[in-house]
Amino acid sequence: MSEPSRDARPIPRGSKACRRLFGPVDSEQLSRDCDALMASCVQEACDRWNFDFVTETPLEGDFTWERVWGLGLPKLYLPSGPRGAQDNLGGGKRPSSSPARLQGDHVDLSLSCTLVPRSPEQPEGSPDGPSTSQGRKRRQTSMTDFYHSKRRLIFSKRRP
Amino acid sequence: MELLCCEMDRVRRAVPDGNLLYDDRVLQNLLTIEERYLPQCSYFKCVQKDIQPYMRRMVATWMLEVCEEQKCEEEVFPLAMNYLDRFLAGVPTPKTHLQLLGAVCMFLASKLKETIPLTAEKLCIYTDNSIKPQELLEWELVVLGKLKWNLAAVTPHDFIEPILRRLPQPSEKVPLIRKHAQTFIALCATDFKFAMYPPSMIATGSVGAAICGLQQDEEVSSLTGDALVELLAKITNTDVDCLKACQEQIEVVLLSSLQQFRQEQGDGSKSEDELDQASTPTDVRDIDL
Protein backbone atom coordinates (compact mmCIF):
# COMPACT_ATOMS: atom_id res chain seq x y z
CA MET A 1 0.00 0.00 0.00
CA SER A 2 1.39 3.38 -0.93
CA GLU A 3 1.95 6.08 1.63
CA PRO A 4 -0.98 8.48 1.77
CA SER A 5 1.30 11.51 1.45
CA ARG A 6 2.56 10.32 -1.94
CA ASP A 7 -0.89 9.69 -3.35
CA ALA A 8 -0.97 10.94 -6.92
CA ARG A 9 -4.76 10.97 -6.94
CA PRO A 10 -5.90 12.41 -3.61
CA ILE A 11 -9.60 12.79 -2.88
CA PRO A 12 -10.44 16.47 -3.36
CA ARG A 13 -11.46 18.28 -0.20
CA GLY A 14 -15.24 18.32 0.16
CA SER A 15 -15.71 15.91 -2.73
CA LYS A 16 -19.37 15.39 -3.56
CA ALA A 17 -18.65 11.78 -4.41
CA CYS A 18 -17.96 10.99 -0.74
CA ARG A 19 -21.42 10.03 0.33
CA ARG A 20 -23.57 7.29 1.79
CA LEU A 21 -26.16 6.03 -0.66
CA PHE A 22 -28.53 3.84 1.30
CA GLY A 23 -28.32 4.91 4.91
CA PRO A 24 -26.45 3.23 7.74
CA VAL A 25 -24.74 -0.11 7.11
CA ASP A 26 -25.17 -2.85 9.68
CA SER A 27 -21.69 -4.30 10.23
CA GLU A 28 -23.05 -7.33 12.05
CA GLN A 29 -25.32 -8.25 9.17
CA LEU A 30 -22.54 -7.58 6.70
CA SER A 31 -20.31 -10.02 8.51
CA ARG A 32 -23.03 -12.67 8.85
CA ASP A 33 -23.89 -12.44 5.15
CA CYS A 34 -20.23 -12.57 4.25
CA ASP A 35 -19.74 -15.79 6.22
CA ALA A 36 -22.87 -17.35 4.73
CA LEU A 37 -21.84 -16.49 1.18
CA MET A 38 -18.30 -17.75 1.70
CA ALA A 39 -19.72 -20.99 3.06
CA SER A 40 -21.93 -21.32 0.00
CA CYS A 41 -18.91 -20.77 -2.28
CA VAL A 42 -17.08 -23.57 -0.48
CA GLN A 43 -20.16 -25.79 -0.70
CA GLU A 44 -20.52 -25.14 -4.43
CA ALA A 45 -16.92 -26.13 -5.03
CA CYS A 46 -17.42 -29.17 -2.83
CA ASP A 47 -20.49 -30.32 -4.79
CA ARG A 48 -18.87 -29.56 -8.10
CA TRP A 49 -15.78 -31.65 -7.48
CA ASN A 50 -16.98 -33.99 -4.74
CA PHE A 51 -14.01 -32.93 -2.70
CA ASP A 52 -13.94 -31.24 0.67
CA PHE A 53 -11.49 -28.40 0.13
CA VAL A 54 -11.45 -27.47 3.80
CA THR A 55 -10.31 -30.80 5.15
CA GLU A 56 -8.87 -31.83 1.76
CA THR A 57 -10.67 -35.14 1.66
CA PRO A 58 -12.34 -36.81 -1.32
CA LEU A 59 -16.10 -37.42 -1.09
CA GLU A 60 -18.56 -39.73 -2.88
CA GLY A 61 -19.43 -38.59 -6.40
CA ASP A 62 -18.59 -38.46 -10.07
CA PHE A 63 -14.90 -38.01 -9.53
CA THR A 64 -12.53 -40.52 -8.06
CA TRP A 65 -9.69 -38.80 -6.35
CA GLU A 66 -6.34 -40.47 -6.12
CA ARG A 67 -3.04 -39.37 -4.75
CA VAL A 68 -0.21 -38.84 -7.18
CA TRP A 69 3.45 -38.78 -6.32
CA GLY A 70 4.86 -36.22 -8.65
CA LEU A 71 3.27 -34.80 -11.76
CA GLY A 72 6.34 -34.22 -13.84
CA LEU A 73 6.02 -30.57 -12.92
CA PRO A 74 8.71 -28.06 -13.67
CA LYS A 75 11.11 -27.55 -10.79
CA LEU A 76 9.62 -24.16 -10.05
CA TYR A 77 6.47 -25.74 -8.65
CA LEU A 78 8.22 -28.31 -6.53
CA PRO A 79 8.95 -27.62 -2.88
CA SER A 80 12.51 -26.44 -2.75
CA GLY A 81 13.44 -26.11 0.89
CA PRO A 82 12.26 -27.81 4.06
CA ARG A 83 8.53 -28.45 4.39
CA GLY A 84 7.86 -25.42 6.51
CA ALA A 85 9.28 -22.99 3.99
CA GLN A 86 6.49 -23.27 1.43
CA ASP A 87 3.65 -23.43 3.91
CA ASN A 88 3.10 -19.70 3.80
CA LEU A 89 1.80 -20.18 0.27
CA GLY A 90 -1.46 -21.24 1.81
CA GLY A 91 -1.73 -17.99 3.69
CA GLY A 92 -1.41 -19.81 6.99
CA LYS A 93 -5.09 -20.58 6.83
CA ARG A 94 -4.84 -24.28 6.36
CA PRO A 95 -4.96 -26.36 9.48
CA SER A 96 -1.64 -28.05 10.04
CA SER A 97 -3.37 -31.31 10.83
CA SER A 98 -4.78 -31.45 7.31
CA PRO A 99 -5.08 -35.03 6.05
CA ALA A 100 -3.60 -33.99 2.72
CA ARG A 101 -0.29 -33.33 4.37
CA LEU A 102 1.79 -36.28 3.30
CA GLN A 103 5.15 -37.48 4.38
CA GLY A 104 8.27 -37.47 2.32
CA ASP A 105 8.96 -36.30 -1.18
CA HIS A 106 5.83 -34.94 -2.82
CA VAL A 107 4.20 -31.86 -4.25
CA ASP A 108 1.20 -30.09 -2.84
CA LEU A 109 -0.83 -30.66 -5.97
CA SER A 110 -0.95 -34.26 -4.94
CA LEU A 111 -4.46 -35.35 -5.85
CA SER A 112 -5.80 -36.09 -9.27
CA CYS A 113 -9.34 -36.93 -10.18
CA THR A 114 -11.00 -39.26 -12.65
CA LEU A 115 -14.53 -38.97 -13.93
CA VAL A 116 -16.35 -42.24 -13.31
CA PRO A 117 -19.77 -43.27 -14.65
CA ARG A 118 -22.56 -42.97 -12.10
CA SER A 119 -24.11 -46.31 -13.06
CA PRO A 120 -22.77 -48.71 -15.64
CA GLU A 121 -26.14 -49.64 -17.20
CA GLN A 122 -27.03 -46.04 -18.05
CA PRO A 123 -26.69 -45.38 -21.78
CA GLU A 124 -23.98 -43.04 -22.95
CA GLY A 125 -25.16 -39.44 -22.88
CA SER A 126 -24.14 -38.91 -26.45
CA PRO A 127 -26.58 -37.21 -28.82
CA ASP A 128 -25.51 -39.51 -31.61
CA GLY A 129 -27.56 -42.38 -30.29
CA PRO A 130 -26.49 -45.62 -28.64
CA SER A 131 -22.82 -46.32 -28.58
CA THR A 132 -20.97 -49.49 -27.91
CA SER A 133 -21.23 -50.53 -24.29
CA GLN A 134 -17.50 -50.87 -23.90
CA GLY A 135 -16.57 -47.38 -24.96
CA ARG A 136 -17.07 -45.78 -21.57
CA LYS A 137 -13.58 -44.83 -20.64
CA ARG A 138 -13.52 -41.12 -20.02
CA ARG A 139 -10.48 -41.02 -17.92
CA GLN A 140 -8.89 -37.82 -16.83
CA THR A 141 -5.47 -37.85 -15.37
CA SER A 142 -5.82 -34.58 -13.53
CA MET A 143 -8.12 -31.68 -12.95
CA THR A 144 -6.31 -29.58 -15.51
CA ASP A 145 -7.06 -32.18 -18.14
CA PHE A 146 -10.71 -31.87 -17.34
CA TYR A 147 -10.62 -28.12 -17.72
CA HIS A 148 -8.89 -28.38 -21.06
CA SER A 149 -11.35 -30.78 -22.56
CA LYS A 150 -14.27 -28.70 -21.34
CA ARG A 151 -12.84 -25.55 -22.78
CA ARG A 152 -12.24 -27.14 -26.15
CA LEU A 153 -15.82 -28.31 -26.21
CA ILE A 154 -17.18 -24.81 -25.79
CA PHE A 155 -14.85 -23.33 -28.34
CA SER A 156 -15.65 -25.87 -30.99
CA LYS A 157 -19.36 -25.50 -30.40
CA ARG A 158 -19.37 -21.77 -30.93
CA ARG A 159 -16.92 -21.49 -33.74
CA PRO A 160 -18.80 -20.56 -36.90
CA MET B 1 27.47 9.39 -10.98
CA GLU B 2 24.43 11.56 -11.29
CA LEU B 3 20.97 10.30 -10.64
CA LEU B 4 18.05 11.81 -12.39
CA CYS B 5 14.80 11.72 -10.54
CA CYS B 6 11.64 12.85 -12.20
CA GLU B 7 8.00 12.38 -11.40
CA MET B 8 5.75 11.00 -14.03
CA ASP B 9 2.27 12.41 -14.00
CA ARG B 10 0.98 10.29 -16.75
CA VAL B 11 0.76 6.56 -16.66
CA ARG B 12 3.18 4.95 -19.06
CA ARG B 13 1.50 2.71 -21.54
CA ALA B 14 2.44 0.43 -24.35
CA VAL B 15 1.93 1.58 -27.90
CA PRO B 16 -1.14 0.12 -29.66
CA ASP B 17 -0.23 -3.19 -31.22
CA GLY B 18 -1.26 -3.28 -34.86
CA ASN B 19 -0.91 -7.05 -34.91
CA LEU B 20 -3.67 -7.30 -32.36
CA LEU B 21 -5.87 -4.53 -33.69
CA TYR B 22 -5.91 -5.54 -37.35
CA ASP B 23 -5.94 -9.30 -36.93
CA ASP B 24 -9.41 -10.67 -37.56
CA ARG B 25 -8.79 -13.59 -35.24
CA VAL B 26 -8.66 -11.27 -32.24
CA LEU B 27 -11.98 -9.68 -33.11
CA GLN B 28 -13.54 -13.06 -33.86
CA ASN B 29 -12.33 -14.49 -30.56
CA LEU B 30 -13.75 -11.52 -28.66
CA LEU B 31 -17.08 -12.01 -30.41
CA THR B 32 -17.03 -15.72 -29.61
CA ILE B 33 -16.42 -15.33 -25.89
CA GLU B 34 -18.24 -12.10 -25.06
CA GLU B 35 -21.56 -13.70 -24.13
CA ARG B 36 -19.98 -15.76 -21.40
CA TYR B 37 -19.60 -12.63 -19.35
CA LEU B 38 -23.16 -11.37 -19.56
CA PRO B 39 -25.32 -11.50 -16.42
CA GLN B 40 -27.37 -14.70 -16.37
CA CYS B 41 -30.77 -13.06 -16.04
CA SER B 42 -32.66 -9.84 -15.68
CA TYR B 43 -32.24 -9.93 -11.92
CA PHE B 44 -34.80 -7.35 -10.83
CA LYS B 45 -37.52 -9.79 -11.86
CA CYS B 46 -36.10 -13.08 -10.74
CA VAL B 47 -33.47 -12.62 -8.03
CA GLN B 48 -33.59 -9.34 -6.15
CA LYS B 49 -36.34 -8.51 -3.68
CA ASP B 50 -34.95 -5.40 -2.04
CA ILE B 51 -33.04 -3.76 -4.85
CA GLN B 52 -34.94 -1.66 -7.39
CA PRO B 53 -33.75 -0.45 -10.80
CA TYR B 54 -33.39 3.13 -9.54
CA MET B 55 -30.98 1.90 -6.87
CA ARG B 56 -28.73 0.38 -9.51
CA ARG B 57 -28.75 3.73 -11.22
CA MET B 58 -27.82 5.46 -7.96
CA VAL B 59 -24.90 3.18 -7.25
CA ALA B 60 -23.79 3.31 -10.89
CA THR B 61 -23.84 7.11 -10.89
CA TRP B 62 -21.80 7.15 -7.70
CA MET B 63 -19.29 4.66 -9.12
CA LEU B 64 -18.90 6.74 -12.27
CA GLU B 65 -18.28 9.84 -10.18
CA VAL B 66 -15.60 8.07 -8.17
CA CYS B 67 -13.93 6.68 -11.29
CA GLU B 68 -13.94 10.09 -12.97
CA GLU B 69 -12.66 11.91 -9.90
CA GLN B 70 -9.90 9.33 -9.53
CA LYS B 71 -9.15 9.52 -13.26
CA CYS B 72 -9.44 5.78 -13.59
CA GLU B 73 -8.84 4.10 -16.90
CA GLU B 74 -11.95 4.20 -19.08
CA GLU B 75 -12.55 0.46 -18.83
CA VAL B 76 -12.66 0.37 -15.05
CA PHE B 77 -16.21 1.65 -14.68
CA PRO B 78 -17.90 -0.60 -17.28
CA LEU B 79 -15.92 -3.58 -16.01
CA ALA B 80 -16.97 -2.87 -12.42
CA MET B 81 -20.59 -2.65 -13.56
CA ASN B 82 -20.20 -6.00 -15.28
CA TYR B 83 -19.05 -7.54 -11.97
CA LEU B 84 -21.92 -5.86 -10.11
CA ASP B 85 -24.55 -7.13 -12.56
CA ARG B 86 -23.13 -10.64 -12.62
CA PHE B 87 -23.07 -10.78 -8.84
CA LEU B 88 -26.61 -9.43 -8.50
CA ALA B 89 -27.85 -11.92 -11.12
CA GLY B 90 -26.91 -14.70 -8.72
CA VAL B 91 -27.07 -13.42 -5.17
CA PRO B 92 -30.10 -11.79 -3.52
CA THR B 93 -28.66 -8.71 -1.84
CA PRO B 94 -30.16 -6.19 0.58
CA LYS B 95 -29.95 -2.58 -0.55
CA THR B 96 -27.79 -1.64 2.43
CA HIS B 97 -25.02 -3.82 0.94
CA LEU B 98 -25.25 -2.29 -2.52
CA GLN B 99 -22.75 0.52 -2.04
CA LEU B 100 -20.24 -1.87 -0.50
CA LEU B 101 -20.73 -4.15 -3.49
CA GLY B 102 -20.14 -1.23 -5.86
CA ALA B 103 -16.94 -0.35 -4.01
CA VAL B 104 -15.71 -3.96 -4.15
CA CYS B 105 -16.40 -4.13 -7.89
CA MET B 106 -14.44 -0.92 -8.50
CA PHE B 107 -11.64 -2.26 -6.31
CA LEU B 108 -11.40 -5.45 -8.40
CA ALA B 109 -11.77 -3.75 -11.79
CA SER B 110 -9.16 -1.16 -10.87
CA LYS B 111 -6.70 -3.83 -9.78
CA LEU B 112 -7.21 -5.68 -13.03
CA LYS B 113 -6.86 -2.69 -15.34
CA GLU B 114 -4.68 -0.06 -13.68
CA THR B 115 -1.01 0.35 -12.93
CA ILE B 116 -1.81 2.20 -9.72
CA PRO B 117 -5.08 0.78 -8.47
CA LEU B 118 -7.60 2.38 -6.13
CA THR B 119 -6.90 1.50 -2.52
CA ALA B 120 -9.40 -0.03 -0.13
CA GLU B 121 -8.96 2.93 2.24
CA LYS B 122 -9.78 5.44 -0.45
CA LEU B 123 -12.88 3.57 -1.56
CA CYS B 124 -14.10 3.45 2.04
CA ILE B 125 -13.73 7.22 2.32
CA TYR B 126 -15.84 7.51 -0.81
CA THR B 127 -18.62 5.62 0.98
CA ASP B 128 -18.43 8.31 3.67
CA ASN B 129 -16.79 5.66 5.88
CA SER B 130 -19.97 3.63 6.03
CA ILE B 131 -17.82 0.56 5.43
CA LYS B 132 -14.41 -0.44 6.78
CA PRO B 133 -11.43 -1.52 4.67
CA GLN B 134 -11.52 -4.92 6.39
CA GLU B 135 -15.13 -5.42 5.28
CA LEU B 136 -14.22 -4.44 1.75
CA LEU B 137 -11.44 -7.03 1.69
CA GLU B 138 -13.69 -9.77 3.07
CA TRP B 139 -16.37 -9.02 0.50
CA GLU B 140 -13.77 -8.96 -2.21
CA LEU B 141 -13.33 -12.70 -1.64
CA VAL B 142 -17.08 -13.26 -1.66
CA VAL B 143 -17.49 -11.45 -4.97
CA LEU B 144 -14.51 -13.28 -6.47
CA GLY B 145 -15.99 -16.59 -5.39
CA LYS B 146 -19.41 -15.81 -6.84
CA LEU B 147 -17.87 -14.59 -10.10
CA LYS B 148 -15.83 -17.82 -10.15
CA TRP B 149 -12.70 -15.65 -10.42
CA ASN B 150 -13.63 -14.85 -14.00
CA LEU B 151 -12.58 -11.23 -13.95
CA ALA B 152 -11.17 -10.68 -17.41
CA ALA B 153 -14.60 -9.98 -18.84
CA VAL B 154 -15.05 -8.64 -22.35
CA THR B 155 -16.31 -5.06 -22.24
CA PRO B 156 -17.46 -2.70 -25.00
CA HIS B 157 -14.08 -0.97 -24.75
CA ASP B 158 -12.37 -4.05 -26.13
CA PHE B 159 -14.18 -3.48 -29.42
CA ILE B 160 -13.58 0.25 -29.82
CA GLU B 161 -10.11 0.06 -31.37
CA PRO B 162 -10.84 -2.92 -33.63
CA ILE B 163 -13.93 -1.08 -34.92
CA LEU B 164 -12.23 2.29 -35.41
CA ARG B 165 -9.36 0.66 -37.27
CA ARG B 166 -11.79 -0.83 -39.74
CA LEU B 167 -13.61 2.40 -40.53
CA PRO B 168 -12.49 4.75 -43.30
CA GLN B 169 -12.14 7.77 -41.00
CA PRO B 170 -9.64 10.56 -41.41
CA SER B 171 -7.09 9.68 -38.75
CA GLU B 172 -7.17 13.11 -37.12
CA LYS B 173 -10.86 12.62 -36.29
CA VAL B 174 -10.37 9.29 -34.58
CA PRO B 175 -9.44 10.61 -31.09
CA LEU B 176 -12.62 12.69 -30.93
CA ILE B 177 -14.80 9.81 -32.12
CA ARG B 178 -13.11 7.51 -29.63
CA LYS B 179 -13.68 9.94 -26.77
CA HIS B 180 -17.36 10.30 -27.55
CA ALA B 181 -17.83 6.56 -28.01
CA GLN B 182 -16.22 5.97 -24.60
CA THR B 183 -18.63 8.42 -23.03
CA PHE B 184 -21.57 6.61 -24.59
CA ILE B 185 -20.28 3.32 -23.26
CA ALA B 186 -20.13 4.74 -19.73
CA LEU B 187 -23.62 6.10 -20.19
CA CYS B 188 -24.88 2.67 -21.27
CA ALA B 189 -23.29 1.06 -18.22
CA THR B 190 -25.35 3.29 -15.92
CA ASP B 191 -28.57 2.12 -17.57
CA PHE B 192 -29.85 -1.38 -16.84
CA LYS B 193 -31.49 -1.55 -20.29
CA PHE B 194 -28.07 -2.26 -21.75
CA ALA B 195 -26.86 -4.73 -19.13
CA MET B 196 -27.92 -7.78 -21.15
CA TYR B 197 -26.70 -6.47 -24.52
CA PRO B 198 -23.54 -8.00 -25.94
CA PRO B 199 -20.60 -5.62 -25.45
CA SER B 200 -19.89 -5.65 -29.20
CA MET B 201 -23.33 -4.24 -29.90
CA ILE B 202 -22.94 -1.49 -27.31
CA ALA B 203 -19.54 -0.62 -28.76
CA THR B 204 -20.81 -0.59 -32.33
CA GLY B 205 -23.85 1.48 -31.38
CA SER B 206 -21.67 3.90 -29.43
CA VAL B 207 -19.29 4.44 -32.33
CA GLY B 208 -22.27 4.92 -34.64
CA ALA B 209 -23.91 7.41 -32.29
CA ALA B 210 -20.62 9.26 -31.84
CA ILE B 211 -20.08 9.65 -35.57
CA CYS B 212 -23.70 10.67 -36.22
CA GLY B 213 -23.58 13.25 -33.44
CA LEU B 214 -20.27 14.73 -34.50
CA GLN B 215 -21.16 14.70 -38.17
CA GLN B 216 -23.74 17.43 -37.59
CA ASP B 217 -21.02 19.89 -36.65
CA GLU B 218 -18.18 18.87 -38.86
CA GLU B 219 -17.18 16.32 -41.42
CA VAL B 220 -15.77 13.44 -39.40
CA SER B 221 -16.66 10.57 -41.66
CA SER B 222 -16.86 9.88 -45.33
CA LEU B 223 -19.49 7.27 -44.65
CA THR B 224 -22.80 8.27 -43.14
CA GLY B 225 -26.34 7.07 -42.66
CA ASP B 226 -27.25 3.57 -43.76
CA ALA B 227 -23.89 2.92 -45.37
CA LEU B 228 -22.17 3.57 -42.04
CA VAL B 229 -24.58 1.40 -40.06
CA GLU B 230 -24.17 -1.42 -42.57
CA LEU B 231 -20.41 -1.31 -42.38
CA LEU B 232 -20.48 -1.17 -38.57
CA ALA B 233 -22.87 -4.11 -38.45
CA LYS B 234 -20.61 -6.10 -40.74
CA ILE B 235 -17.52 -5.45 -38.63
CA THR B 236 -19.02 -6.92 -35.47
CA ASN B 237 -21.42 -9.41 -37.07
CA THR B 238 -24.40 -7.54 -35.65
CA ASP B 239 -27.85 -7.50 -37.17
CA VAL B 240 -28.42 -4.14 -38.90
CA ASP B 241 -31.86 -3.56 -37.37
CA CYS B 242 -30.65 -4.48 -33.87
CA LEU B 243 -27.78 -2.09 -34.28
CA LYS B 244 -30.05 0.74 -35.42
CA ALA B 245 -32.34 0.12 -32.44
CA CYS B 246 -29.36 0.06 -30.08
CA GLN B 247 -28.00 3.31 -31.49
CA GLU B 248 -31.39 4.96 -31.11
CA GLN B 249 -31.62 3.79 -27.51
CA ILE B 250 -28.20 5.25 -26.80
CA GLU B 251 -29.32 8.57 -28.22
CA VAL B 252 -32.49 8.48 -26.09
CA VAL B 253 -30.45 7.77 -22.95
CA LEU B 254 -28.12 10.63 -23.81
CA LEU B 255 -31.04 12.98 -24.31
CA SER B 256 -32.67 12.06 -21.03
CA SER B 257 -29.41 12.42 -19.11
CA LEU B 258 -28.93 15.84 -20.68
CA GLN B 259 -32.46 16.81 -19.64
CA GLN B 260 -31.78 15.61 -16.14
CA PHE B 261 -28.61 17.65 -16.13
CA ARG B 262 -30.54 20.74 -17.19
CA GLN B 263 -33.07 20.24 -14.42
CA GLU B 264 -30.29 19.91 -11.86
CA GLN B 265 -28.63 23.05 -13.17
CA GLY B 266 -31.87 25.02 -13.30
CA ASP B 267 -30.01 27.68 -15.20
CA GLY B 268 -31.94 29.17 -18.14
CA SER B 269 -29.04 30.46 -20.20
CA LYS B 270 -27.18 27.21 -19.87
CA SER B 271 -30.11 25.01 -20.79
CA GLU B 272 -30.47 26.68 -24.17
CA ASP B 273 -26.93 25.71 -24.82
CA GLU B 274 -27.47 22.14 -23.72
CA LEU B 275 -30.60 21.84 -25.82
CA ASP B 276 -28.56 22.58 -28.89
CA GLN B 277 -26.01 20.07 -27.79
CA ALA B 278 -28.57 17.35 -27.35
CA SER B 279 -28.25 16.15 -30.90
CA THR B 280 -24.57 16.99 -31.11
CA PRO B 281 -23.02 15.64 -27.97
CA THR B 282 -19.74 17.52 -28.14
CA ASP B 283 -19.70 18.19 -24.44
CA VAL B 284 -21.09 15.03 -22.95
CA ARG B 285 -17.92 14.40 -21.05
CA ASP B 286 -18.34 17.56 -19.06
CA ILE B 287 -21.72 16.49 -17.84
CA ASP B 288 -22.16 15.21 -14.37
CA LEU B 289 -24.42 12.28 -15.04
UniProtKB/TrEMBL annotation, chain A:
GO terms for molecular function: cyclin-dependent protein serine/threonine kinase inhibitor activity; zinc ion binding. One of its GO terms (biological process) is import into nucleus. Residues 80-160 are annotated as: Disordered. It is found in: Cytoplasm; Nucleus. Keywords: Acetylation, Cell cycle, Cytoplasm, Metal-binding, Nucleus, Phosphoprotein, Protein kinase inhibitor, Ubl conjugation, Zinc, Zinc-finger. Residues 149-160 have a biased composition (Basic residues). Transmembrane segments: none annotated. InterPro entries: CDI_dom, CDI_dom_sf, CDKN1A. Pfam families: CDI (PF02234). One of its GO terms (cellular component) is cytosol. Residues 21-68 form the Cyclin-dependent kinase inhibitor domain. Coiled coil: none annotated. Belongs to the CDI family. PANTHER family: CYCLIN-DEPENDENT KINASE INHIBITOR 1 (PTHR46778:SF1), CYCLIN-DEPENDENT KINASE INHIBITOR 1-RELATED (PTHR46778). This is Cyclin-dependent kinase inhibitor 1. It comes from Molossus molossus (Pallas' mastiff bat). The lineage of its organism: Eukaryota, Metazoa, Chordata, Craniata, Vertebrata.
UniProtKB/TrEMBL annotation, chain B:
Residues 61-145 form the Cyclin-like domain. This is G1/S-specific cyclin-D2. Interacts with either CDK4 or CDK6 protein kinase to form a serine/threonine kinase holoenzyme complex. The cyclin subunit imparts substrate specificity to the complex. InterPro entries: Cyclin (IPR039361), Cyclin-like_dom (IPR013763), Cyclin-like_sf (IPR036915), Cyclin_C-dom (IPR004367), Cyclin_N (IPR006671), Cyclins_cyclin-box (IPR048258). Residues 154-284 form the Cyclin C-terminal domain. CDD domains: CYCLIN_CCND2_rpt1, CYCLIN_CCND2_rpt2. It holds the Pfam family Cyclin_N. It comes from Molossus molossus (Pallas' mastiff bat).
